[in-house]
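Good morning N.,

You mentioned wanting to compare the apo and holo forms, so I went ahead and generated the holo version with oxa(dethia)-CoA. This is what I fed in:
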Amino acid sequence: MTAKRSVVLGCGSYLPRKVLTNAELADRIDTSDEWIVQRTGIRQRHIAADGEFTSHLAINAARAALDHAGIDAQQIDLIVLATSTPDNTFPATAVAVQHALGINHGVAFDLQAVCSGFIFALATADNFLRSGSHKRALVIGAETFSRILDWSDRGTCVLFGDGAGAVVLEAQDQPGKPTDRGILTTHLRSDGRHKSKLFVDGGPSSTQTVGHLRMEGREVFKHAVGMITDVIVDAFNATGASAEEIDWFVPHQANKRIIDASAHKLHIAPQKVVLTVDLHGNTSAASIPLALNVAVKDGRVKKGDLVLLEAMGGGFTWGSALVRW
Ligand code: UT7
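and this is what came out, ligand included:
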């Protein structure tokens, strides 16, 4: 029996030109390159220029993904954009992307699940495509976290960066076997009991301000590995796949220590782990498609490879996706 699958046709990304190194941060606040590298693996991050908005990053990433997929923008009938740093409270940043791409049909909307946003957007688009309601989707993660950081808080401002990544998905009939191409399974979770451990202290309804990111880093760290591994085990159980069968592990890039510990607990070999946290920092919803794009473009991720994605972030939210490239 055939199965409808959301097959990845291509990916793309965009990083703002300005690079901010750990050494530059150490000139401004009480931190050091040594502390940041040792505790997080981060060496630098990209920062959006004045007047460069989340939509601009997203549009560049979307165009790169369409080019890579060999698809004309007019063939896209669904845009799901994950962001916690939209251009405006409304309308959705996704409609700015839709407009810039010259698309007047179909539907475009934003989705907010903080660092898990790309996995949530991927799962949402997958459900639309498999239902038959839409044919081709752009799934985008785009963030300008530099705009919501408290640059005097060394516990958070050294961690985050700006960027965007995108994938193009197409609904295709596949044989209905574990060797099918496309998204094989997705698993999403949230638990609002943890909502005050990682949050922004402003918003239109509460303070009428944008606010700044606040995090109990150690508390987030404590929960991260367990939540990540649980939801990956869900993906393995749903598909019968095992850690040995995974070709590439492309995790949310928050902290190298969290990534290493998760891979170790799951028995995923270190050489299968795609790491970009050193160069990008934590770009929230953009981190997975940014990392994916690096590994696809440098030839690591190839057609037919089994790729495991995961993320965990504010809410808490967390999720996984298993994709045959
Ligand atoms: O993407 C969403 C999910 N977010 C995450 O996954 C982040 C999870 N949390 C983390 O990655 C880590 O908790 C951090 C990297 C944020 C912090 O690392 P840590 O090993 O948990 O450090 P800590 O918060 O326990 O702080 C240790 C020390 C403290 O000093 P004392 O109290 O021991 O004297 C901090 O004040 O390090 C100090 N510290 C710093 N020192 C230099 C905190 N930030 C800095 C800094 N530079 N930037």
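The domain at 3-174 is CATH 3.40.47.10 (Peroxisomal Thiolase; Chain A, domain 1).

Happy to go through it together on a call whenever suits you.

Best,
F.
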